[in-house]
Amino acid sequence: MNATATPGAPASPEAPRPPSGRPEKLRLGDVLVQQKLISMEQLQQTLELQRSTGKKVGRLLIETGVITEELLANGLARQLRIPFVNLKTFPFRADVIKLLPESSARRFKALALEDKGSTLLVALSDPLDVFAYDELTRILKRDISIAAVPESQLAAAFDRLYRRTEEISGLARALEKDIGDAVDFGELTATVGTEGAPVVRLLQSLFEDAVQVGASDVHIEPQEDSLQIRVRVDGVLQTQTQADKRIGGALAQRLKLMAGLDISEKRLPQDGRFSVRLRDHTIDVRLSTLPATYGESAVMRLLMQGAGMRRLDSIGMPPDMLKRFREVLGRTSGMVLVTGPTGSGKTTTLYAALAEVNAAELKVITVEDPVEYRLPGLTQVQVNDKIELTFAKVLRSCLRQDPDVILVGEMRDAETAEIGLRAAITGHLVLSTLHTRDAMSTPFRLLDMGVPAFMVSTSLQAVIAQRLVRLNCVECAAPHTPNAQEQTWLTGLLAGTAPITAKRGLGCSACNGTGYTGRQGVYELLEMDATLTQAASQGNPATFLRAARERMKGQTMPFHALELVRQGKTSLAEAMRIGFEVQDADAETQE
């Protein structure tokens, strides 16, 4: 395989490369001056700063803005006649990466890139570091050649490439040996507190890997012949490992103990929560167990404590919609609902809205399951079904606490919805969520729950429906020509308006080959005006839907997703997914 790195221009004759590939003892400052990347005056100023701070010259040059990391690495590559590698687009191979242990890679800021047979190409943040070169040669037991890379790219690559898949598989095998053919749950229960127990180390590695890749959920699923462990990243499940199915019971039992659940009950679903401390992070874990054909399935939702709360102007809502939504939030009474399926970002939107209305002169109470964000100045209540501390019961008590604003985590039943709507009628601003697939069907979802029509029409002020779309990877996004299906969908949606130029991620090391990195919300906002209020009070779906469609023409979620396609932020495939979901919901509502 030929090196995929981009070689720099030939170096000046003053700095020949030794035949062995070992770095010469050159001073970085002299090299950069020779390359005319910095001036002698800038070098002298940096050397003086180095004497007072003790930091390396290269780091000081970057921190003071004299030079960028890319220019620094490129300059060294040209001077030393070595390749410069962009790690964001480099096609890594897992078998080559594993040649250098993670501890050594992080210590020497190095990464094994390509096995050339006689030599191994290694990326090094400081190609002039002779000590690192000698140590890497000793560890790898190979002759190595060096490539220059920006240091920040290395740090990101370590987290992306050194997944704990092998560690997790090894711990799973160790746990399998401990268990043997028959599981002694009594003995396991007595030893689960031991930090060295394989089950404890396995779970710790699972959590660390999930946090490292930004996973929102961990799924432990017993199959007929194996135990499947998967993580959800950017809304898509990725297989972490396959293990012997016999360890499933041990994992489920340990998780139940951590969550304070009944370990003897395997016939009924159970829900619980616990917190884990990983490095500098505390993770709140919501555990759900479900008895399945081949054992108990466990799913864990991971919530990072202390994660920065989003503001309304940073969640991706279109400016005109954001202005209208803020006007609704400025009212002193009424109900505002945020709708969408599980995992569509409803809680993030609610808390961003809450941050807008939270003021010293207002009494704000939240009723949640669980309390996902902790805000100063709020009274936050955690419901607990085990002691019958339900949404409805807490909501009744909240009204006696003289609140101005109430946030209800979810309208789960008719009783909660009715109490919330009564509170909205009597001078409170009520924010909540509901599981519907678009904004137009929301009033009738409340009616289906048994709430009187007059309460819906007089209390409901606005409905936001939302989804999350994956964003194109900025490193590998390229122009995309719509296929036949995409063109048909576009033609029906655009209806004669100007065509759009689409982009799609091709897949690279920065996005793990998916073509996507991160997610953003797409929204639609339905405000209840006089026409819609009257139609809702009559309980006539056809009349209401006709008025709502006219009101929201060109402002629905598919149009917002299409605007993101136009901006190159997401792909047509993602926009179509949103469009088809909403069309299905619309068809169900009409039926």
Spell out the CATH superfamily of the largest domain: P-loop containing nucleotide triphosphate hydrolases
What count of helical segments does DSSP give?
Answer: 23
Characterize the largest beta sheet: strand count, sense, and whether it forms a barrel. 7 strands, mixed
**Topology-level CATH name of the largest domain:** Rossmann fold
| Structural domain count | 3
CATH architecture of the largest domain: 3-Layer(aba) Sandwich
Task: Flag low-confidence runs.
Answer: 1-20, 179-196, 587-591
User: What distance lies between the first and last C-alpha atoms, to the nearest angstrom?
Assistant: 59 Å
Strand and helix layout:
Elements: E1 6-7, H1 28-34, H2 40-53, H3 57-63, H4 69-80, E2 83-84, H5 94-97, H6 102-108, E3 110-115, E4 120-124, H7 130-140, E5 144-148, H8 151-161, H9 165-179, H10 185-191, H11 198-212, E6 217-222, E7 227-233, E8 236-243, H12 248-259, E9 270-278, E10 281-292, E11 295-304, H13 319-329, E12 334-339, H14 346-357, E13 364-368, E14 379-382, H15 391-398, E15 405-408, H16 414-425, E16 429-434, H17 442-448, H18 453-459, E17 460-472, E18 477-480, H19 484-494, E19 502-505, E20 516-527, H20 530-538, H21 541-551, H22 557-566, H23 572-590
Helix pairs in contact: 1-4, 9-11, 15-16, 16-18, 18-20, 20-21, 22-23
